[in-house]
Amino acid sequence: MLRQGYFKGITFLLLAFLIWGQLGCTTNRYRQPISKFQVAAAVLAASARKSYSESNRLNRTLEIRKLTREGKFIVQSDLDKVQFFDDEDLQARFDALDRLTEYVDLLVAIANSDAPERISRSATDLSTALGNLAITAGGLGNRGFPNSKFAEKTQAAFGIAGVIVSEVLKAFIQKKIRQGLEAAIQKGEKPINELIEAIGDDLTVINRRYVLNFEAERSTFQLIYNCEANKVAQNAEIKEVCETSTIPAVRLSAATPFSQQALNSHRDQLVSHLDALENLQATDPVDTLETMKRAHTRIAALAKSKAPADFADALAAIEAFANAAKRLGDAVDKLKSI
Amino acid sequence: MPKKDELLDSIAIIDDGIHAMNLRLADMLPVKGFHELQKERDEALDRLDFLIKLFAKKSTLRFVKADDELAVVNQEMKKTLAKIESIAKILEGARRFVAAIDTFIAGITKVVQ
């Protein structure tokens, strides 16, 4: 009797210890931050992909527009000089973006794995099956089967053992998953940050190049407008500059009389161009990539520490990243219309 | 050949210079010096494009390196998932095996009785 109570007490303590251990081992704390990070990273990867794909097309279009305005011939070498990425360069970038997506998807797969529950269930089922087998096998050697006492004892023994084994296995698997996840986050920190920096440098350079092109176009549209307006103002110095402009349309227009319709048309062109320039400035990826770097660093900090403050910090950083990624995505989508 | 940072610095300096020229052109009426400034700006853009192409080539190596490093991390994660799945499969296999034996013995028991 005393031994039985002692045994039950030990079993209860062991179970309590295991359940307590599991709470510290679970990957639950990573699920929400990593899932949110996955969504934002997917938006960023898609934006980066679009930016790269659009880069050559946009530069080529802008160069052709410039050559057309200046009434120049178009030859391939003019277009080649503004095609910054060849096929090999683009492929390397797309591969790295694929790898980034795979990395985040794997983190999510590990964090959301239901393996501990499945394995725990399987262990319980196995234990039940073993219990049944013992009863069946016991019956084979005992003609008086079913021996109810034997069956009860056997089932009770396998029942307790089953619970212990399934809980031990669950705790073990949860620990394995958590360790795998934390190791991946910590090992991924350096390459992820390097990749973010490389994407940031790339997109900053190409984005600023678009802006310079747009600014150059803007000064041309302003010149066209001012030359038309000068037909009323009649400033001799401006007239001379307009008549000798490198832009044929401006030179030819200088010889024609003032037209309010032409002036309005030049104004509309300038206004829509300034709107496009403003949108282009919104595709600057620096802020978004900085927020991504910060968000991943916070997840890495979460993997190193158990403080609740780190969890809140990680969530806030990921939220900021998600918002920035969405803004960037919206702006990059508009590049297509240029 | 300049290092990555020097290249980026050079690009940023030329970029700032062209931006300043663009602002000056947008701010001035087409008076004397306008064409000259335009020409100077276009030449600077050509120099910038050359440097950007150089930078893009060098930057490709950074992507290849980050890709390789991440591939190792991803491989380890795949191994972790595979290991866990194999435990689940072993347990499920063992349960089925025991259940099959149980059914077999139960059949024999009926025959014996």
Descriptive account of the structure:
The complex is a heterodimer of chains A (338) and B (113). By secondary structure, chain A is mainly alpha-helical. Chain A has a domain at 32-114 and 187-335. Helices cover 87% and strands 0% of the residues of chain A. Chain A contains eleven helices and no strands. Chain A has helices spanning 2-25, 28-69, 76-80, 87-111, 115-141, 148-233, 236-243, 248-254, 260-281, 286-304, 308-335. The mean pLDDT of chain A is 82. With 113 residues, chain B is mainly α. Chain B has one domain. Chain B is built from two helices and no strands. In chain B, helix 1 crosses helix 2. The longest helix of chain B is centred in the middle third of the chain and has 79 residues, at 34-112. At the A-B interface, helix 4, helix 5, helix 6 and helix 7 of A face helix 1 and helix 2 of B.
Q: Quote the beta fraction of chain A.
A: under 5%
Largest protein interface, residues of each chain: A-B, 78 and 67 residues
**How many DSSP-defined strands of chain B?**
0
Task: Give the N-to-C terminal Cα separation of chain B.
Answer: 92 Å
Radius of gyration of chain A: 35 Å
Gap between N and C termini of chain A, in Å? Answer: 86 Å
**Helix content bin of chain B:** over 70%
Write down the overall geometry of chain B. rod-shaped
List the helices and strands and how they pair.
The complex is a heterodimer of chains A (about 350) and B (about 110).
Chain A: H1 2-25, H2 28-69, H3 76-80, H4 87-111, H5 115-141, H6 148-233, H7 236-243, H8 248-254, H9 260-281, H10 286-304, H11 308-335
Helix pairs in contact in A: 1-6, 2-4, 2-6, 2-10, 2-11, 4-6, 5-6, 6-8, 6-9, 6-10, 10-11
Chain B: H1 4-27, H2 34-112
Helix pairs in contact in B: 1-2
